[in-house]
Amino acid sequence: MSVTDSPAARLQALFEGHRLTPTQRRIAHSMVRRAADVPFLSSVELAELAGVSQPSVTRFAVALGFDGYPALRRHLREVAPAEPAAEVGAHNEYQQAVEAEIENLRHLSEALADPAPVQRAGHLLAASRPLLVLGLRAAAAQAHGFAYFAAKVHPDVRLLGEGGTMLQDRIDAAVRAGASALLCFALPRHPREVVDTLACAKEAGLTVVTVADSAFAPVAKVSDVLLPAAVGTGLAFDTACAPMLLGRVLLEAMCDDLPQAQSRLEEFDTKAAARGLFVD
């Protein structure tokens, strides 16, 4: 089965072109994550999965043009027939969280069957001098990790890891210095400040590349290139293995567009050895 024929891809196509509310985007995101199971879920089960009310699921189905959720489910069974996923069985809650992350990584792998979006993003990031990397609150660690490694191959990486009124000043300064792109990591819960900052970045003329938890995330409307990678929600705090891996894939794509990337890495290794920086 190609990625365009997968249940998740068919669901994505079903949602495209519809103006969804934040609650409806949450339902859509949950359906994509459990694409193989959705045709077999009741409206109550889907509501529990998405963490919304049952009437919200009904309104969501109507917003997609169906008479109600039963009509939507019949449609899904016709266009995306699939066997329900195997039961988790004896897995405990920690194992279930790991299995969910494995599934998120599997979905990311399917999405990367078409490398063009990531390659385009890598080209945009490599060409920006300086390169801005934004990540606030839950996404701060993702942004920091990307910026740390990117600085080893890119000549000027500027991390925006803390919010506040200085964000706009730092964006303006980067634009004056020649910046053309900003990379944003955006994870739930989505800070309003991130959406506002991306809007300001676009107004300043920057191309915005965003790694987000869903194609329906609030940052989608202020992003030029959106690369989705789902987070795990089975534990008290979300897990972000797929967004982290997608960040590393982006680094690889950016390196492919930086002719001096390999020589910069070799130079760093030589200096690190001379300084005794790492324990062998």
- Rounded mean pLDDT is 89
Number of strands: 5
Number of helices: 12
Instruction: State the helical fraction.
Output: 40-55%
> How would the global form be characterised?
globular
Residue windows where pLDDT falls under 50 for at least 5 positions: none
Neighbour order of strands in the largest sheet: 2-1-3-4-5
Supply the helix-strand structural class: alpha/beta
From the alpha carbons, calculate the radius of gyration and give it in angstroms: 21 Å
**Beta-strand fraction estimate:** 5-15%
What is the N-to-C succession of helices and strands? HHHHHHHEHEHEHEEHH
In terms of quaternary structure, what is this?
single chain
The largest pleated sheet is described as: 5 strands, parallel
Span from first to last CA?
45 Å
How would you explain this protein's 3D organization?
- The chain has 280 residues and is α/β, with parallel strands linked by helices.
- Helices cover 52% and strands 9% of the residues.
- The chain has a five-stranded parallel sheet with strand order 2-1-3-4-5, sandwiched between helices.
- Helix 10 (192-203) links the parallel strand 3 and strand 4 (207-212).
List the helices and strands and how they pair.
Elements: H1 7-15, H2 22-33, H3 43-50, H4 54-63, H5 69-79, H6 93-111, H7 116-127, E1 131-134, H8 140-150, E2 157-160, H9 166-177, E3 181-186, H10 192-203, E4 207-212, E5 225-228, H11 241-256, H12 261-275
Parallel strand pairs: 1-2, 1-3, 3-4, 4-5
